[in-house]
Specification:
Layout lengths: L3 H4 L1 H23 L5 H25 L10 H27 L8 H25 L13 H19 L7 H25 L10 H28 L13 H31 L1
InterPro entries: Marvel, MYADM-like
Membrane topology: Multi-pass membrane protein
Family: Belongs to the MAL family.
């Protein structure tokens, strides 16, 4: 038994994340008000993060993780980053969609669940900070800044896909969707190959290839950042009323998420260039 799995700072952060995520989904389950699309997403996030974090702690506690055919440090780094992003999104989505103004039913449970979700995000963020690679250390790629950014880029692309609706009739919008899809697939493959220890079998200078891909993805996202709002907002005003299912709001959300990923790919390119050439 490896007691450091629960007594180290990383282990303590994981235990806090387990307790807080369990508290969040238990309180929301007690209200019975989670059967909407957003409520289902929130419950899935808390339950998924709870289950995987518990599994991680058990595997480290019993020292079984070396038997797995994966890069354990890359897996835990990628998961902690993903969990932080998912719980952060849930901490924003749940109160904005489930707690009315004024609140009508189960107000105390919903408020405590929201607070627990926010604290759970801080626990995962703490784990990301504790496991992030130090400058010059590239033994675990997904714990470096470029590696963590790749998890961020994939997650933001998933959010973009969830907001896409009618784009099939406009070639410019079709190009934007192609940009989101191509960059999502390639970045996801990089993450999967890294965790599966498959990158070493690629017969080319891998580090330079990743820099080249980051530069290409940045250029593609620059075009999407210009084309998407041009076709969706040119000579168009926001309808009134416009709720959460309004196409105009979804297009605005895709615009901001595109900008976020553009910034992420820019920072990714800067850090990757420094790691490889400097």
């Amino acid at each position: 038994v490896n007691l450091r799995a629960v007594t180290s700072w990383v282990g303590i952060a994981r235990l806090l994340a387990i307790v807080l995520s369990c508290l969040a989904f238990s309180l929301v389950a007690s209200t019975g008000e989670y059967k909407t699309t957003y409520g289902t997403w929130c419950m899935f996030t808390w339950c998924f993060c709870f289950a995987v974090t518990l599994l991680v702690i058990l595997l480290e506690l019993l020292e079984l993780y070396p038997k797995l055919p994966i890069s354990w440090d890359d897996f835990t780094s990628a998961f902690s980053m993903l969990a932080a992003l998912m719980v952060f999104t849930t901490s924003v989505v749940y109160p904005s969609t489930s707690i009315g103004s004024p609140c009508s039913t189960h107000c105390a449970q919903k408020a405590v669940a929201t607070t627990a979700s926010c604290l759970c995000f801080l626990a995962y963020a703490l784990e990301v900070g504790l496991t992030r690679a130090k400058p010059g250390d590239i033994s675990s790629f997904l714990s470096t800044v470029p590696g963590l950014l790749k998890v961020f880029e994939v997650y933001v692309a998933c959010l973009i896909f969830s907001l896409l609706d009618n784009f099939s009739s406009v070639p410019g919008l079709q190009w934007c969707v192609a940009v989101y899809s191509i960059c999502f697939i390639i970045t996801l493959l990089i993450i999967i190959f890294t965790i599966g220890r498959c990158l070493a079998y690629i017969p080319c200078p891998l580090e330079k290839m990743l820099v080249g891909y980051s530069a290409l993805a940045l250029v593609m996202y620059i075009t999407a950042t210009v084309i998407w709002p041009y076709y969706n907002f040119s000579n168009k005003t926001r309808p009134n009323p416009c709720n959460s299912d309004c196409a105009w709001n979804k297009h605005l959300g895709v615009t901001f998420l595109t900008i976020f990923n553009l910034i992420a790919y820019l920072v990714d390119l800067i850090y990757s260039t420094r790691m490889v050439f400097i």
